[in-house]
What does this fold into?
Amino acid sequence: MRDLSTIFKALSDETRLQMMALLLHEGELCVCDFMDVLGISQSKASRHLRYLANAGLVVDRREQVWVYYQINSALDPERERIIEALTELLRRERAAALFDAFERWKERKAKSGTAGCAQE
It folds into this structure.
């Protein structure tokens, strides 16, 4: 029961649900993607992503100074069912504004000419 409790606690926050929606839609994202689209600080984004990682829902990888996150591809059956349910619940219609904000961010990012996130 503790394992399920950890998963559902991780998903009980709106910011973390938005992060999951973006990851389910896009595949893999950098911390800076979450910062810009959700309008949150790097520390807040990292804290929320760490919560999802500790619940076994996402994994990260480092590339130079950037950290990228994606849905864990080695999910156990319980987490797999939860991800399937999330995929259904977080369809484009429910998260349209979020996905539109992400598309605007991708355009700005492409115009800046940086492959990764702009360093500040």
